[in-house]
Amino acid sequence: MHLHFIPFFAVLISGVLCTFYDYGYDGGYAGPEGDYYVSSLSLGPSTANCAPECTCPFNYPSAMYCDNRKLKVIPMVPAGIQYLYLQSNMIEAIEEDAFKNVTELKWLILDHNQLTNGKIKKNAFSSLKHLVKLYISFNNLTELVGPLPKTMDDLRVTNNKISKITPNILEGLENLTHIHLQYNALKEDSISGAFKGLKQLEYLDLSFNELTKLPKGLPPSITTLYFDNNKIANIPDEFFQGFKALQYLRLSNNKLKDGGVPGNAFNISSLVELDLSFNELGSIPAVNEGLENLYLQVNKIQKFNLNSFCKIIGPLEYSKIRHLRLDGNNISRVDLPQDMYSCLRVASEIDLG
Q1: For the chain, which residues score pLDDT lower than 50?
Q2: The pTM of the whole model exceeds 0.70
Q3: 143 φ, ψ to 5°?
Q4: Which residues are in the LRRNT domain (predicted)?
Q5: Can you tell me the distance from the alpha carbon of 257 to that of 274, in angstroms, rounded to the nearest whole number?
Q6: What is the pLDDT of residue 45?
Q7: Alpha-carbon gap, residue 190 to 162, rounded angstroms
Q8: Which of 168, 177, 113, 110 lies closest to 144, judged by CA?
């Protein structure tokens, strides 16, 4: 076992690259065949079936690239287009007939525009019966857009001004697996029950919002749940016990104290990674023996309690912790119990700062 510093980013990077599979390292979007899209300027001449303002490359005839064109309106999209890139323009509105010719559209990228809810017609997306990905981040939305096609599996609406989700706006989206809502102005009352019925939902990111409590009515299918950088101070008793598939849970940069964390809060048998860094915890909370990565840096922890990791120590009873961060607390090596190695026998890195 090595007691030395582990860069937090390095531990997480494989998960980040896997989670954000549609983005290139430079923030570009993956092309329809999986190649990372950087700029339409490098795609060569267009096919004849293309809007004059845009590029439809011969090697991707079903894709139309209209990014960075200073467009204020959505151009006419010809039939046959399945991948439409409209990011980084000045588009303010979406009319009801904007996509009437492209009922086969699968990807719609509208990031970095000037869209507002009042200028998006109610049925703007209703003709898109095959849409699976909608990216509409970095706009001026105050509510979640919809109704959306039932074929959707990936919705990204980050970096807007969303303060509420209209009840039932996500109803019927049983194929939706990923929702990104970080960097908005959501409060718990405005989203409680909003995700109910999303039977396939696996990934939900509500980081960088205004939550003071954990929202109710989250689907039990979730495997990845992020609440970083909110104002959450309490966790209801057994709140996470219904999430039988939950593997990754982040609650860093909140207002958690010992009194607001029930003793059994994180005893989740499926959990692989738990991030509670940058809170106000005075002790190490009890975790399940199957947990592998635990991040507790920058809290107010003063004691290393081995019972938080192992209720029983034996040949087959021990903690699966591999990475443990406790730097930025009031613990030094002299505070480590002598029998720590019997419990944390597979830990490869422990950071005490």
Answers
A1: 1-28, 33-38, 41
A2: yes
A3: -135, 160
A4: 49-83
A5: 16
A6: 57
A7: 10
A8: 168
Strand 273-275 with 248-250, pairing: parallel
For residue 14, the model assigns a pLDDT of 34
The three-state (H, E, C) secondary structure of the chain, written as one string: CECCCCCHHHHHHHHHHHHCCCECCCCCEECCCCCEECCHHHCCCECCCCCCCCECECCCCCEEECCCCCCCCCCCCCCCCCEEECCCCCCCCECCCCCCCCCCCCEEECCCCCCCHHHECCCCCCCCCCCCEEECCCCCCCECCCCCCCCCCEEECCCCCCCECCCCCCCCCCCCCEEECCCCCCCHHHHCCCCCCCCCCCEEECCCCCCCCCCCCCCCCCCEEECCCCCCCCCCCCCCCCCCCCCEEECCCCCCCHHHCCCCCECCCCCCEEECCCCCCCCCCCECCCCCEEECCCCCCCCCCHHHCCCCCCCCCCCCCCEEECCCCCCCHHHCCCCHHHHCCCCCEEECC
122 C-beta neighbours (distance < 10 Å), count: 10
pLDDT digits (tens, 9 = 90+) for 165-216: 998 999 999 999 999 999 999 999 999 889 988 999 999 999 999 999 999 9
**CA 149 to CA 69: how far, in whole Å?**
28
C-alpha–C-alpha distance, residues 28 and 59, integer Å: 18
Q: Which residues of 298-328 are buried (b: 16+ CB within 10 A; e: fewer)?
A: bbebeebebebbbeeeeeeebbbbbbbbbbb
d(CA 106, CA 104): 6
User: In sequence order, what are the residues at sequence separation of 6 or more whose Cβ sits closer than 8 angstroms to the Cβ of residue 105?
Assistant: 77, 81, 82, 83, 84, 99, 128, 130, 131
- What letter represents residue 181's amino acid? L
Instruction: Measure Cα distances from 72 to 67, 87, 113, 210, 340 in Å.
Output: 12, 11, 9, 32, 62
Q: Distance (Å, rounded) from C-alpha 311 to C-alpha 247?
A: 21
Alpha-carbon distance of 291 to 269, in angstroms, equals 8
